[in-house]
Amino acid sequence: MDLSQAKVLFDAEQMAGQLETMARAIAGGEDQAGDLCLVGIRTGGAHLAQRLGALVGRLLGAQPDTGIMDITLYRDDWTRQHRRPKVGTTNIAFDIEDRRVVLVDDVLYTGRTVRAALDELMDFGRARRVELAVLIDRGGRELPIQPDFVGASLKGGEGQVIEVLLTEEGYPSDRVVSLPR
Questions:
Q1: How far apart are CA 34 and CA 94, in angstroms?
Q2: What pTM did the predictor assign?
Q3: Cβ contact 173:12 at 8 Å
Q4: Domains (ranges, CATH) in the chain?
Q5: How big is the CA angle at 117 (ends 155 and 126), to the nearest 5 degrees?
Q6: What does the DSSP 8-state code read for residue 169?
């Protein structure tokens, strides 16, 4: 990814504050830590789910179960994007039946990624409640999907891409940037 034209929207300190606020809201639900689980959508959402899980665990005094899902084969556009899609692993090593599941992603835009995640999640059981946590909500929905927990809302134009850059992915510091498409 060419970051030479990137405009920094949020730095590491601002992102940490957004995640802390989101964790407090998630922990403020009526459920105990044992009923709560977080599932991150690969790749950025997976790292954010780990971070949120640690923050929520500190607040509740017990670490919630945290998993990762790869939604590649559940996407409605995967055959258009790649002849041979690169499929990652899904790791949900706990039962979601009758539990509060918080899906976590880095950026919410059209809603299609979340739709695919919901389809895959249903293959793992019937959660009591499914909520959505996103670091960035950029509007532009094509499906009726809304987040329950949001770090920041940004209305980017169609000519812009918003990327969440994380140290877990090899970047020197956490940042949210805007790039021309």
A1: 11
A2: 0.92
A3: yes
A4: 7-180 (3.40.50.2020)
A5: 130
A6: G
What average pLDDT does the structure give for the chain?
A: 90
Non-local (6+) Cβ contacts of 26 within 8 A are: 36, 38, 52, 56, 102, 131, 133, 149
Rounded CA gap, 117 and 119, in Å?
Answer: 5
**Closest C-alpha to 181, from 152, 138, 142:** 138
Using the CB atoms, write b or e for 82-107: b if 16+ within 10 Å: eeeeeeeebebeeebeebbbbbbbbb
What is the C-alpha separation between 110 and 117, in angstroms, rounded?
13
Range scoring the smallest mean pLDDT among 55-64, 87-96, 123-132, 133-142: 87-96
- Reported as a single tens digit per residue, the pLDDT across 44-100 is 899 999 999 999 999 999 999 999 999 887 755 555 555 666 667 899 999 999 999
